Each structure stands twice: as structure tokens, then as C-alpha cells.
């Protein structure tokens, strides 16, 4: 395809953008001169600004003046392709598509709507399809193929140095990475269970814990009661990339860290609620992973037992040994 301009809409969380990275890679692989713009929200634009395959970032702020300026900027670009990969109805999605002025608009119309001239299938039609393949589906409709079905992230030399220095100082050569944080309260496991899990695996492995900065005090209390664990002081998202990349295994609730690990094909143990559509849409994409599901709830993970997580971890270690 000759060089074209694309605007990809992804207004959700950082994890949603991480899962969209195969789209950016496929576009640039089709033609390095394609120009990629991304319409982001206030929760994920920092990731977009640092991602090397994205050329321009537009941020949706809901204040009237900022919104007017955004709409003017978007319409001025006259994108060749406007792609909103959501597979469900969204008023914001249709609003932006209707005013963007793009030549070709790809997205979910739903009933009685013709905003998008190339429609994407509904969530129901793609129920068994991983979210990455759902996001890539619009490209397939315009002749751009993709052969990567995992996130694409790039290691940062400073983050690599930061990790290597930490490992050398603490005389560590191998570790399990445990992330305790999540984007939603119901995706937090019980602190005492993290401690018990660390006690169970401490005979065979050191553990490096990480967390969102808001959970630092909480994690310090957890680590203080562990045997061989340490809190790894991440200063940026790129620090988490390095930590997950070099880990023997990543253990995490259902959140962005699961997909960061998948970007580097690191084995994952994921703690998930029993929400059927979510298990279909957002599992890890690493070659080796285990899901530990709270069969009692489609919302919370707190009732998952330590023994079930330990069993999944041991089975995964045996599988990759």
C-alpha cells in the first residue's frame, strides 16, 4: 500500500494501548512511511508519547475548550484511515468518527448507524477471539496483514542498566517477578496470601515484587514479612518491561503487567475472576501461561487460594524446564 495516514482510537487504559501495539507494528511493516496518529485518553497518553512507532499523539480532555481544539486538529489532518477497534457501541466513538473528516472510517456501527463505512464485527461475533486479533481485524479489511499476535514493546537502555545494577548489588541471577497492583480494586489479591505464596516458593527462587507507586507502602509491609523477597524500585513503565523480560516467571493479577510479560514471551501466572468473556478476550499471549480463576466470583480474585496459585506456578515451571 502506498504511504497513508492512520489515526487509531484508543481512549482506555495503558493496558489497552499495550494490546494495540501489534496494530502499529503491522502498519509500519506494511510501509515504513505510513504515518500513525493515536487518539488517547488522559490515562494512557504518556505511553503513546514514548512509543517509537507512533508519530503523533492527540489527547482527549473533556473540557470544552480543549475538546474544540482537539476536534479542529483532528479534522485538519484529513486522515486516510480512521480506525476505532472497539467491538461494542460507544457514543464517544461515533462522535469522533462523525467529525474527524477521514476518508475511510473503520469501527463498530451497531444497529441503525452508518458512521463507519467499514464496520467491524460485534463483541458477540468475536466472542472466542483474543483482543489482539480483534484489534488487528480492521487492518485485515484494508489489506494489511499481521503475523505478530503479542504486544510489541521496546527495552530501554537506562532501565536495563538500572535492573542489572540492582541484581548485581543483591547478588541475584534468577528471580520470579510478582506484581501486586491492578487497575481495579476487585483485582487485588489479599496481602497475606502474597506473603504465604512467597514463603512457599522461597526455597527455590528469589522474588522481586513490583507495584504501582500508590501501593508502595502496602508492598513494603508485604516484603517485610517475606523470606527472600525484595521490592524492585521501578521509576517508569520501561523499568517494568526490563523486570518482566528477565524474570523466570511473572505472577500478577489481571492487569497490564500480564501483557507486558507477554510482549517478551515470559511465562505468566495470571489471577483472574470468573468472567467468561474477559477470560476469552484478555488472557496472556505468552507461549506458556497458567490462569488461576476464582470460580466463586465474576468480579473479585481475593478468594483464590495460595495453593491454587502455587500449583499453577509449579506446573508452569515444570513445563518450561
Short description:
This protein has 321 residues and is of the alpha/beta class. The protein contains 13 helices and twelve strands.
Characterization of this structure:
Helix content is 39%, strand content 17%. Helix 7 packs across helix 10 and helix 8 (191-201) packs parallel to helix 13. The strands form two sheets. The protein has a six-stranded parallel beta sheet with strand order 3-2-1-4-5-6. It has a six-stranded parallel beta sheet with strand order 9-8-7-10-11-12, with helices on both faces. It has 13 helices and twelve strands. It has helices at 14-18, 21-30, 45-50, 64-77, 91-99, 131-140, 157-169, 191-201, 216-224, 237-245, 256-263, 276-281, 306-320, and strands at 5-10, 35-40, 56-59, 81-83, 104-107, 118-119, 175-179, 206-210, 229-231, 249-253, 268-273, 289-294. The mean pLDDT is 95. It has 321 residues and is an alpha/beta fold.
Task: Write the topology of this structure.
Elements: E1 5-10, H1 14-18, H2 21-30, E2 35-40, H3 45-50, E3 56-59, H4 64-77, E4 81-83, H5 91-99, E5 104-107, E6 118-119, H6 131-140, H7 157-169, E7 175-179, H8 191-201, E8 206-210, H9 216-224, E9 229-231, H10 237-245, E10 249-253, H11 256-263, E11 268-273, H12 276-281, E12 289-294, H13 306-320
Parallel strand pairs: 1-2, 1-4, 2-3, 4-5, 5-6, 7-8, 7-10, 8-9, 10-11, 11-12
Helix pairs in contact: 2-6, 7-10, 8-9, 8-13, 10-11
